[in-house]
Amino acid sequence: MGLIPNFKNIATRSPWIYRINAGSCNGCDVEMATTALIPRYDIERLGCQYCGSPKHADIVLISGPLTVRVKDAVLRMYEEIPDPKVTVAVGVCPISGGIFRESYAVLAPIDQYIPIDVNVPGCPPRPQAIIAGVAKAIAIWRERL
Amino acid sequence: MSNQIAILLAVLLFPGGVFALAFGLAMKGVDRRVAARLQSRVGPPLLQPFFDIIKLGFKRTMVPAAANETVFLYTPLVGVVAMLVAAALVPITSVYAPDAAIGNLLVLLYLLMIPGIVLMIAGSASGSPYGAIGFSREMALMIAYEGPLVLIAAAVAIRTGMGMGGWATFSLNDIVAYQQAHGSFLFDPVMWPAVAAFCFFYPANVGIVPFDIPEAETEVLEGPLLEYSGPVLALFKIMSALKKVVVLGLGIALFFPAAPAGIVGGFLVWLVKMAVMMLVGITAVRLSMGRMRIDQAFVFFLKWPLLLAVASLAVVVVV
Ligand code: SF4
């Protein structure tokens, strides 16, 4: 039965990424787009690929403090992602609410509603930090396959 | 009996089945790698598409509540099987000639329509509004490009048939043999409009960027594929990889089958032609263009490829 673990190792080389914007200020989203899209940080070489549909995703990047208005949509979207999946919270917003923490309109910390596996702090975090977060997420994902 | 076994082997092993699957996925890997290099990125490993398929095997398949479960889960299978059979119909000069019972251009044309139809059925069975948009776009696009394809095929068949002293012949083996004897159609000025029309057609048929309107992930979130996940999504990826092999192989068989005798030489020449067709017609086109709107694509196809195809048919019949 040595074959299955082998296939699992291969499978971890193809993490597909989906971004959920839970009311972020867009700073983190720009940073995520930059991380993957510009030649300098090219994460396609890790096999990553942004996908348009939550049903294709393996690793979810969530940014933003989870505002009251998007809560239901975000939870529903999270449910749509097939197991095994890993969640990465990008920015300080999902951790504590960041600069929005005292607002009546935000529900941060986000892990009251969604299990978060990796936190990438920063406002916004550097691309290298996001890549490190994704790499951590891949290691966690390997355990869950 | 023995030729049934030969057909079965052709469908399951070479040039269909295992070979076409591996070749199609490898082509996709090369395509992504070259694209990355052209954008001065490192790019994914060459075997990335294989990794993706294996990964999808580990994921769970979800069926949306609004979907018709049977249709939703089994239509992609139809597409994969159709493409496996189609791959066994396409001759490779001096390497593989399809059995006379199946090697027919008309059969191939019908089989080539199936992936489009599968996408439409899958999109509507998923019960998602994005799938429905994908459905209508796929249908419009198919109406636009199937016409030119049929005319191109007719032009080739008539040219071959008249050359052989008859009217039209749809046997792919005859088409290849005729060009082996009389020179490839690519160098025959009478056939140039048909060649040009085919060059417009095949990027659309394999669904790459200017024409991937039904699956545009930035507008309709991958359209018909939106609701698919796990192994069933892998079937769609396999179907499109196989389709690429079939469409490019068809182009080679129709217009430029010239190759030296002998299995190794013939196969190497075929590989080179496939690589050129893919890099020029798919990778370069995909990178240098933006996606068209569905109405633009529709009008585009009804204008240039259709005109060229009609012209080629007229020229072939008259000359
Ligand atoms: S962490 Fe900072 S940059 Fe990121 S969404 Fe919050 S406020 Fe914006």
Automatic annotation (TrEMBL), chain A:
<dbReference type="GO" id="GO:0046872">
    <property type="term" value="F:metal ion binding"/>
</dbReference>
<dbReference type="Pfam" id="PF01058">
    <property type="entry name" value="Oxidored_q6"/>
</dbReference>
<keyword id="KW-1003">Cell membrane</keyword>
<keyword id="KW-0408">Iron</keyword>
<keyword id="KW-0411">Iron-sulfur</keyword>
<keyword id="KW-0479">Metal-binding</keyword>
<protein>
    <submittedName>
        <fullName>NADH-quinone oxidoreductase subunit NuoB</fullName>
    </submittedName>
</protein>
<dbReference type="InterPro" id="IPR052375">
    <property type="entry name" value="Complex_I_20kDa-like"/>
</dbReference>
<keyword id="KW-0004">4Fe-4S</keyword>
<comment type="similarity">
    <text>Belongs to the complex I 20 kDa subunit family.</text>
</comment>
<keyword id="KW-0472">Membrane</keyword>
<feature type="domain" description="NADH:ubiquinone oxidoreductase-like 20kDa subunit">
    <location>
        <begin position="25"/>
        <end position="136"/>
    </location>
</feature>
<dbReference type="InterPro" id="IPR006137">
    <property type="entry name" value="NADH_UbQ_OxRdtase-like_20kDa"/>
</dbReference>
<dbReference type="GO" id="GO:0051539">
    <property type="term" value="F:4 iron, 4 sulfur cluster binding"/>
</dbReference>
UniProtKB/TrEMBL annotation, chain B:
<dbReference type="GO" id="GO:0048038">
    <property type="term" value="F:quinone binding"/>
</dbReference>
<dbReference type="Pfam" id="PF00146">
    <property type="entry name" value="NADHdh"/>
</dbReference>
<feature type="transmembrane region" description="Helical">
    <location>
        <begin position="71"/>
        <end position="93"/>
    </location>
</feature>
<dbReference type="InterPro" id="IPR001694">
    <property type="entry name" value="NADH_UbQ_OxRdtase_su1/FPO"/>
</dbReference>
<keyword id="KW-1133">Transmembrane helix</keyword>
<keyword id="KW-0874">Quinone</keyword>
<feature type="transmembrane region" description="Helical">
    <location>
        <begin position="267"/>
        <end position="285"/>
    </location>
</feature>
<protein>
    <submittedName>
        <fullName>Hydrogenase</fullName>
    </submittedName>
</protein>
<dbReference type="InterPro" id="IPR018086">
    <property type="entry name" value="NADH_UbQ_OxRdtase_su1_CS"/>
</dbReference>
<dbReference type="InterPro" id="IPR052561">
    <property type="entry name" value="ComplexI_Subunit1"/>
</dbReference>
<feature type="transmembrane region" description="Helical">
    <location>
        <begin position="245"/>
        <end position="261"/>
    </location>
</feature>
<keyword id="KW-0812">Transmembrane</keyword>
<feature type="transmembrane region" description="Helical">
    <location>
        <begin position="105"/>
        <end position="127"/>
    </location>
</feature>
<dbReference type="GO" id="GO:0005886">
    <property type="term" value="C:plasma membrane"/>
</dbReference>
<feature type="transmembrane region" description="Helical">
    <location>
        <begin position="297"/>
        <end position="318"/>
    </location>
</feature>
<keyword id="KW-0472">Membrane</keyword>
